[in-house]
Structure formats: C-alpha cells, structure tokens
Records
---
Amino acid sequence: MNHEFDAIRRLFQQRVPFTHQTTTVHNGDDASVHDIPEGFEMVISTDTAVQAIHWPVDMPLNIAGARAVNAALSDLAAMGAMPAWIWLAISAKDKQSLAQMSDGIVQTCLAHNIELAGGDTTRSATNAINVTVGGLIPKGSAMTRTSAKRDDEIWLLGELGLSAAGLKQWQSGDINGKFVPHFQTIKPQLKQGIQLRELGVQCCLDVSDGLLQDTGHLCHGSNLSFEIEVTKLQTLQSYQQLPPLFGEEKSLEMMLNGGEDYALLFTAKPSLHSKLLNIGAHHIGQCVSGDSVHLKNKGQIIDYTMNGFDHFA
Ligand code: ADP
Ligand code: MG
C-alpha cells in the first residue's frame, strides 16, 4: 500500500462523498471535468493560507483548515455564485498535521455540500493550504468591483472589527477572549451573496483586508469616490460590542482597518433601499463622482490613515 495515496483516500476523498450534479469526471483522475449548465457561467477563485503568516502557529490545525476553505468560499459569496467544488493543494510538515488540517477542511466541505473535486498533497517545511473554489452563476450576473454607479448607496452586510479584536486577544494570550471565536471562525456569506445578486446588486466584494482598504478597490475599480459615514458605522452591532473592551477610538480603528471580517461590501441603486434594510444590510455611505475614499462624520470629511485613526472631529 502506498502511504501517500492511502492518506489521501482516508483523510480526504472518502470523507467527502458529495459530488455536484455537473461533475462528469470525479476526484481520482488526473483532473476533474464539469459540465456547465445552459445559461450559467463558472466562477473560480484561489486562495492560499500559510502557517505563521495567515494563521498563528499556536492555532489548532483543524481550525486553520476550516478557515482556509471558508475564506476561499467568501470570494464566491462576493461574486454572488452558488458554490459547487473545491480543489485543495495542501502542504503538511508531517502526517499528524495533515490529518488535523483535513478534519477542518472536510467538515467545511460537508457543511456547505461542496465537492472536493481534486487536489495535491505534499510534504513541506511549513503547513500551507491552497484552496481553489468553483461555483456557478447565471450568465452575466456576477457582482464585480467595477460595476458601482454614481449615486449608488454603499451597503454592508455583516460586522466589522470583531475578527481583528479576536486576533488581538489571541496574541495577548487571552485565547478564551470574547472575540476569539470571530477570529477563529470565518463565515462566508454565501446565501446572502446569492440573495444580493438576485435583488439586482451589481457591485460587491468581501471585506478581507479592512473596510477602508477594500473600499479603495471598489473606488478604483468603478472610477468613483466612495463616501463612508462614521455615524452609520456606529450603528453596527460591532460598535456596541467592541468599545467596552477597547474604547471608542480603538474600536472604530479596528472596524475601519481590521482584516478578515468577510462582510459583504456592496453598492446598490437607491430604489433597493428598503429591500436591503429588510435583509439586515446597513447603509453606510454614498457613491459620488471622484476617485477617492472619504470618511465623513455627520457629513464633514475627516482625516484618517490606513493603519490607524488620526482623530474624529
Ligand atoms: P497527479 O499525480 O495526477 O497529479 P496525485 O497523485 O497528486 O495526482 O493525486 C491523485 C488523486 O488524488 C488526484 O485525483 C487528485 O486530484 C487527488 N488528490 C490529491 N490530494 C488530494 C487532497 N488533499 N484532497 C483531495 N483529493 C486529492
Ligand atoms: Mg496525473
């Protein structure tokens, strides 16, 4: 028995029996083959997570595995795609690390009914997980970074800063801290992404590198200025939860610059306003002509830096 193939079968292939209806050649061959149904397009994205870079060395590897898959799936959520498959390139220091990472990866595939359509398994000096995700979307309906229109409203679905707060607690040794679960558990907003796309939203991304930085991607992609109103961010639940522990200023800084929130940031025509409120989205600003991100407090532009807050007027 070849140990490598035995491990791949035992740890991965046999544990994710789900196959997607479009797959015509399954895991186990040199490549998988998929039929794209009439009227649909395929959406693909890839994401790498490396131990000590993307997750702390003292984080359990099953949690790291689940995070890696969920973070990759969040890109499908941002496009409004229906998730279907993942392909997994995994590098492990030893057998035990491989088994632990596989636990979280397998559980996440099962939780989302996603096919593990293929992969590659290697030994390496560092544990690392590359996840390629694939999904389907009705032709021409993908939400993109380039589709915001002038006078669109800016919206957010999800919370901000909670993961950054959890990381801070983890790093300070408070591994049972209140916010640590937000850092450990990434929840890709797949259903919400589909819902937004079905409502006619055209411009969206998932916030992985901090609200301000990611708003910059929409702003440059769509050639518009994005005005974000701080008082609206202060109506988020995160702004109720963070200040008792971190103070108001630090909390806002984490909400503006903290990473790995995986909230959906999108723009929409004002006519969608009440529908978006109904699904729990937060209206946080306005697209206007221009080419920059502006932070406003009660309508007045205020200063900020990307890595830290200067002041609030
Ligand atoms: P090849 O030599 O053709 O690249 P491999 O020997 O790397 O194929 O892998 C054998 C089969 O197992 C392939 O079908 C591959 O997609 C699958 N596979 C390898 N590693 C994994 C993994 N970690 N999870 C799921 N499938 C995997
Ligand atoms: Mg081959």
Note: Residues 153-302 form a domain with the Phosphoribosyl-aminoimidazole Synthetase; Chain A, domain 2 fold (CATH 3.90.650.10).
---
Amino acid sequence: MQIYTKEYLTSIQRIEQANNRKDAPILYIETYGCQMNVADSELVISIMIDNGYAITDDFNLADVIFINTCSVRDKAERKIRNRLKVFKFLKRSRPSVIVGILGCMSERLKEKLIEEEKIVDIVAGPDSYRSLPQLLKEAESGQTAINVLLSRDETYADISPVRRDKSGVSAYVSIIRGCDNMCAFCVVPFTRGRERSRSPETILEEIKQIIYEGYKEITLLGQNVDKYNWNNELNFAGLLRKVAIANPEIRIRFATSYPNNFTDEVLKTMADYSNICKYIHLPFQSGSSKILKKMRRGYTRESYIERINAIRKILPDCSISTDIIAGYCSETDEDHEQTISLMKNIKFDYAYTFKYSVRPGTYAARNYKDDIPERTKGKRLREIINLQTKISLESNKKDINKTFYVLIEGKSKRSSNRYFGRNSQNKVIVFPKINSKIGDIVRVVVTNCTSATLLGHIVKVDDIIKLIN
Ligand code: SAH
Ligand code: F3S
C-alpha cells in the first residue's frame, strides 16, 4: 500500500501522473454489478497505473478495454453480452485493441467466454487482478490469457485503490471478500470464493488516505460484513467501533448485513457513535419460512422479525432496506402472500426487488425446478414493487417537517440550481443550493416528498461538521 505520508499522492494526482507519461498504453474500464465490483475496479486501476498504463473515460481512445462483470442474474449477463457487441465493432476497425473480461462472469464461464465471445482476449476472475499485467503480456503476444484461480487469502490489502467516484464525497472500503453462506439461489460463493477478512491495520490506513483525499463518507463493504473476523480477535462490531473512534469526522456506512449474523453488539455500536449512519440493509428474500428453508438462508420469518424488532428497539430512528426475490422454485400464491404480509408488517423504507433467475451450478439449479411461469414471476414482482412504492411514500411523508443533517453529494439531475445529498438514514434529499457546496454537511428541513425522494431547503450550513442525527 502507498503509505500515508506527506508524499502521499491522491487518486487524481496518480491519474494525472499516469496520463502524463509519454506513449503509455491506455486503459478503459467499465463496471457492472455490486458495490464490491466498483471497489475492485478501483484496485485494478491502481495495479494498471503502477504498471505503466494511462486511464481514459473514452473507450475509442483505449488500447485495452476491461469490463468488470456481474453474474448474479441472467439479465445482468445478457446486458454485458450486448455491450460486448459495441466493442466487437470497435475491434473490427482497430484489431490491436485488447478486450479483458474481469469479475464474476469470468469466474463462472472461464474459457467458455473466449469460445463464445470471439473478441475476448483476457479472462480474469476476482482474485487474479495482481496478474493482469502478466495476462496482458500474454494477450499482446497473440495468446488468449486466463486466470480464474480463487484464493483463500487474497484481500488486496496492500493496494491503494485509485478512487473514481465523480463527486469525491463517498468512498468504498472493502473489509471482507467472498461468501461462505451458500444460499441455494446465489452464484456469488462460486464466483467470489471463500470468505476472508482483511487486516484492521490496512483498513484503518486506507481510511486515513480516503480522508486525506477529501472524502466525507465511507462504506465498509463485504457480501456479509457481519462475518468479519480478524484472527478471532476482532469481529465486525469491534472493527466498526475502531473505525468510528479513529475517524470522528466522517460518516460511516456498511453493506451488506445478514440476518443470522447481525448482532445486537453491532446495533449497540451503531447507537454509541453518532458518525455511524443509522441505516441497515438486511435482505429477507422471502416472507415464507418454507421458501426460506429451500433458499438455505438459515433463518425463519419469525427469527427475521426478531432481528427487525431488535433494530427498532436499539435504534428507533434507523431506516431499513431489504432485498426480495419473487417466484423462487415452488413458491405458491400463499408463500407470495407471506412476502406481501411481511412487507406490510415491517414497512421497509426501501426494497431492491428481483425475479428469481436460475444460476447454473447453484444448489437450487441442481435440485429444484424453476417451476414458476415467467408471467407469474412478473405479476408477483409488480405487486411487490407497487406495495413498496406505497410504503416508501408513507415512510417519506413521516419525514415532512423534520430536519436532517445532509451530506451534499452532487447537483440534482433535474435542476442545476439544486443539490442532492443523503441523510443518515440514506434517504435522498433534494434542495436549492444556497451558500453550500458539494461535500458540505447542511441542515435541511423536509417540506415535501415523492416515494423516492425527500424535498426541502437548507436551514443552516454548519461550519463545524456535526454528524449527530
Ligand atoms: N450478500 C450480498 C448479496 C449479493 S446478491 C450483498 O452484498 O448484497 C444481491 C441480491 O441479489 C440478493 O440479496 C438477492 O436478493 C438477489 N439475488 C441473488 N441471486 C439471485 C438469483 N439467482 N435470482 C434473483 N435474485 C438473486
Ligand atoms: Fe449470495 Fe447469500 Fe452470500 S445471497 S452473496 S450466498 S449471503
């Protein structure tokens, strides 16, 4: 890792230096899927810059094109395959361009990707990024280059990511890689390998750098952050506490939590530190215990509700979002109704909703029939989305007349004289700019809302950053 000293270079400086090098080959990288992929692409850029590459945002200028891919649903893969058609066209006019597929699709499909997509020169799985310069050498000499080995200990702990977040306000810090949960429907354990935690020292060091670069918020990342475990000495709550104490001036978020592993100790730590945001993403997937069992999630409807009750008790002002899958194998109308009733009962502030998509090789693909017709999956999903829209609107209406500390992230897409930012509860608030700038924490009173956004105006721009909320 670039150790934080007076000579420490920011991400912008590193890119500037890289792009000033004469005749450096140029890399373009495109990222799909989860936040972990965004963080991984930042590692890849760091590795490539250190190996003499320049970086561009325009693929027409690139010598090397990397696509960091997602396999979580078939739709994600199809989108990426469509995108490859654009690069195929580019390669026809410039055959020397090297195309590399990174991430989960590489790991899932391996050499098949090269057979199926004729333009692909490099296939690199999530644990192979240190070997990218070597893979490029092989590709340049006309061979196809593959590295899809998964590792038990790779955490890229010593690599300083080159941050690409446009607003410069919020940064990701990966704390644990892989997933051992093996939910029956999920391809992630196969594409990202076994769980392994990163040392607390390198996490804290990276956060120092992030603050030096001017960021105001970090998100600690993992497929299941609650399984964080450093040598049986430090668990996730302990890490969270360390990070919160060491960095009182920034906001701290984390994702994703897992119902079985989400402890009261984490909740109490959140309650103890005002700089830890009061927001939890706790996927439930289905409201039916029968389906949850078939999903191999390891909890029931009742034990999930018990976790929600613990959140409400220890953190009354915490917002909660979730993930829901519609139309899993053998899901009946009654099972679906249980999902609907759980949503009505808990009233999530937000939900990410998906139609079940068979992932080859998973337990569900091997053992159960994907027996819910597409039309039924669609109907159930629409019902879930419509209900959630109503619940989100209700939740937002409750915020009218309340005042929140908001970290400004950027200009509103709809209107250039408005900013948007988030409150501690991760709700997006849009308001007129007035004496403020991106990265400021401002106090905003909510005056109106839609189901997706709160609307308001600034009541105070704080000179001293206060994060109590
Ligand atoms: N723990 C991970 C989950 C990754 S997958 C995290 O960090 O978020 C994200 C969500 O995608 C899951 O919670 C689930 O709701 C959905 N998902 C995963 N596999 C799926 C599949 N085969 N079909 C439909 N949705 C799926
Ligand atoms: Fe997937 Fe379950 Fe892990 S949804 S990422 S196997 S927690």
Note: The first strand starts at residue 26 and ends at 31.
---
Amino acid sequence: MYAFKIQGGNRLFGTVEINGAKNAILPIMAGALLTAEPVKLENISYLSDVKVLSQLLSSLGMKIQNETDSLTLRADDIVSTHADYEYVSKMRGSFWVLGPLLGRFHKAEVSLPGGCAIGTRPVDLYLMALREMGAEIKIENGYVCATGPLHGAEIFFPKVSVGATHNTVMAAVLTPGKTVIHNPALEPEVIDLLNMLVKMGADIKGIGTKTLIITGVEKLHGCKHKIIPDRIEAATFAIAGAMTRGRIFMKGARLNLMEAVADVLRVSHVEITQEQEGVLVDATHAKLTATPITTCEYPGFPTDVQSLMTSLLAIAEGDSVVEERIFENRFMHIPELQRMGAHVRNINGNTILITGVPELSGATVMSSDLRGGVGLVLAALVAKGQSIVKRIYHIDRGYYSLESKLSGLGAVIERIHLDD
Ligand code: UD1
C-alpha cells in the first residue's frame, strides 16, 4: 500500500503539463472497437484506469501498441464479446464496451459494474436506450447479455448521463437507420468522442446541442485523434495554486473547458487567463473567500471538482454552502477533512455548510475515492505540519504522477510504502 507524505506550507510556482483527459480517453478507446482499421490516439497518459481498459480490450482480441504518449488500437480480429467482471469491477468505464460491441458484432456479454464509493450508479438508462434500439437484454449471473441486430430509434433521456450518452452513440453509429438522442450529455469528453467518431466516418448531426441525430453507416475507418486536455486535472492545479497563493502555468490546459471553476476562483481574486500555450493561474494577490457551489451537468460546476473546491472553501473566509446534485454519496472525504480541522456541518444528505478556518493541521487521512483523495492532498499542501494521505491507489486511477508534478512546483510530497 502506498501513501503520500506531505509537509504543508509551501507556495506553488512554475509550469505543469496537463495530460489528456482520462474521461475522454476511456470512451474513445472503447470507440476503437467500431473499426477494423488502426486508431491512433495521442496525448495519452498511462493511468491505472487506462491500463485496466487496455487489458480488457486485449482480452477481446484488440491489438494495442503503446508509444511515448500515444496508443494505437486495432480491432481487426475480435475473438470475444465477453467483458469479464475481473476488469469491469475494477473500472466502471469498461462497461462502455457494451455499445460498440453490440453495434458492430450484434452481441455482447458485459459484467454489471455494481455500485461504488460515490453512489449506486445504476445503468438503467444505458439499457433503456439499447432496448429502444431493438436489443434483447437479459441480466444473467451478474452480466448484461445483449443481442441485436439494432435499428434506429428516438431516445429521450430523462436525466443527463455521460456514460449512457457515450454508450448509445457508439451503439448507433453502425446501426441502420436514424437514431435521435434527446437530452444527451454535453460534457467536453462526450464531444471529444463524437468528434473522433466523425473522423472515423460516422454521420452525427447536432454535436454540442441537446439533440443528436445519428444516421448509421455501413463501416467506419481508422483515424488519428488527439485527446482534449484534462479539465479536472487542470482544475486540481488551479485550486492548488489558489490555496497556496502561488502562480502556476498549466501547459496545454484550455480555460473554455473550465469556466465554472474559474468563476469560483475569481471570487477569491485569483487571476486566471488563457495564454497561447495554456492557462495561467496567479493567486499571489488572492483572498480566499466563501462561495456557494452547486454541482451540475456541463457547463455547470463539475461534480468531479466538488471535493477539490471544498478543501479550498475550508480555508476561505466566511460560510459556503455546497450542494452535490449529481451523485448521492460524494461527501466521503468530509470526515477526513474535519480531522484536519475543517469546520463542516451537514445540512442534509447532499448539502453541507463549510465555515472557513484560518489554518488546517496535518493529519493521517484516508482516500475513499479518486477525487475525494485528491481533495485531501490539496488540504495537506496548506496544512500546518505533516500529513499522510493513505489509499492513493484511488488517486493513481486518474492522475499521472501527481507527486512529481506537485513537487516540480515546489510542494514537499513523496510517495511512501506502508506495510498495512
Ligand atoms: C462520468 C465520469 C465521472 C463524472 C460523471 C458526471 C467518466 C469515466 N466518469 O461518470 O467522472 O463524475 O460522468 O460528470 O467519464 N445515472 C442513472 N442511470 C444511468 C446512468 C446514470 O440514474 O443509467 C445517474 C447517475 O447515478 C448519476 C447521474 O446519472 O446520478 C450522472 O451519471 P453519469 O453522467 O452517467 O456518470 P458516469 O458516466 O458514470
């Protein structure tokens, strides 16, 4: 078991490189199942989630070649349409192979992912859309067993779901006829998948709007695609810069993908600007100030940044109400933050009140999920004394070498091995 040992108190200055977005890499890798030709993906970082999905895709017969920061995937000899529990249980995004397998091969047997630390995370919307498209679906021994062929359909999503949008689009692009998707997710990672599918020859109209019209084509071809920068990783460094009152240039980041986060930082007099090659965050004159936050679908405040921003609000002057509207169980990091001296009161299951304190104190704390764990790392960077953040395997799922990026900016952080 590894942990981060962090000595708080250093201000962060310098340049950090922002990697390709994890939440775009995963559906796009699954999208490579839709063609027999090679798909080259650039701006890839080898996160543990990417490794798990690579293993699953290889188990289906996909050939995967790694280069320095790219991956070439080739699905010209798919030998299995069975996505095993071993992979899907480790990483929910693996479930997204269901749509492309069903669309191209008319059958798929994919393990149900089950719940996770941040909520029950059902897949009813995925299955509803596929059934509307003619799939026969049975749940057997913990697996979704689906058979086609599919046909075009009109689908109304009663709730916005990133994953259900990815999955339905990937099922529809090779399906004869027209599939209309009402109320798709508009997250930049969804748009990145749609753009890649269009490069592969898919006929998709309405990208970036609340209605997608997909006309099935007979065949898709290979392509080269550069993954968009990770707006959640960028938000992480922007908040770290703000909390430590530093100045950080985030190379490769795009401000237009993270405006909701930038607006909250600006309340604290953090200057955040788009430069030619990235985003500059200057918090040298910041005054951290309480701000209400409500998580919503894009372009609203992202749920994935909620636990990071709560660490900032824990040391901001005044009272902040934080409402989580996307996942029902996303305050798991709060009891740990309280152990570091944060003043947080539960208002109801999905709303908390944070009263800023002048200083947090270092403690041994435990990550319960990916973003909650990083929220604790941010708190430790400003806390007085030393902190140990345990269970950082959660963090490795979505951050490539977080400790070397932070220490490159002046933080005192190291990865240590614990015996338990
Ligand atoms: C993706 C992201 C995750 C992000 C989330 C919301 C990846 C790998 N993960 O997760 O980081 O926090 O989007 O932006 O990209 N829901 C249903 N039924 C369904 C599907 C979803 O009720 O069939 C609900 C969920 O429980 C949740 C809400 O819809 O309350 C949004 O979930 P969704 O957008 O699907 O999240 P993910 O795609 O799992």
Note: The mean pLDDT is 96.
